[in-house]
Amino acid sequence: MKKQIVLTIIALTLTALMLSIVAVKADDFIDPSNLHLVPQESISTGAPVITTNNPTTCDLSITANNIKLTSVWLILVIDEATYTGGGSITVQGPVSPSKSVTIDSTNFLIVTGDVPPSSAGTAPNGVDSYPGCPTNEAYNKVDKQIGGGKTYYTYIDITGTLTGSQLLSGFPQKITITISGDNVIKVLVLVMGHDANDDSTTGLGQRSPYSESTLFVLPEYSLPLIGICSCFAAFAIYKKGRGILHL
To answer: pTM of the full predicted structure?
Structure first.
C-alpha cells in the first residue's frame, strides 16, 4: 500500500512539473510581432491560417498601439510544385479607385536561409526599392511551414494599394489575394512593415508571426497540412525564445 501511495505522489508531482514547464515555455515563446494578416473570420491556432479560397479577402491590421506603417510589404513563400507550375500572385487593396500589384513566379528566389535579406536594394521584381530588414526580425524555417523541401520566396511592396498609402494602429484594412497558375499547391503569405514612429529601425522592423499569417493550399492538400502545422504549433510550446514560429 505504501509503495502505491509513494508512486501516486511521484506521478502527481511529475504531472504538476510537466504542466508548469509547458506554461513557462508557452510564456517564453510569446512572439512580439505586431502585424496580423489572416482570412476574414478565421480562428488563430498557433500556426498559419489555412485557406482553400482563391481569391480570398484578408484582414490586415496592427495588434499594438501607436504604430504607423509607411512601408508595407508582403513576403510570399511557395513550394517547388507551385514554382514550377508558373503563374502569378495579385494583391488588390481597398484604395478607390482600385489599385493592385502583381508578381509572377519568375520573381521568386530559392530559400537558403532567413528571409527577406537584411540589406536594402532593389526588390526581385526589379522595380520596388526595398528598405532592408533587421536581422532579428527576419523569418526563419519558412520551408518547414509549407512541408519542407525546396522552397522559394519573394517580397513585394503593397503600400500603394492601401488607403492613405499607410497602415495605422486601430485602422485595419482589407486586401484581396488572387493566385493563378497550373499547379498551385502551397503559398504562405506574411506581412512586414516600417514603423515611422520608431526611430531605431530604418527597415522593415514590424512583422506578422506565423500564427497571424495565411497559407493557401489546394483543397486536397488541406487536411494533411493542417496536421503538419498543428504538430509545429505543439512542438513550439517547448521551444524557448524565437524558434519554429519565429520568421
So the answer is: 0.77
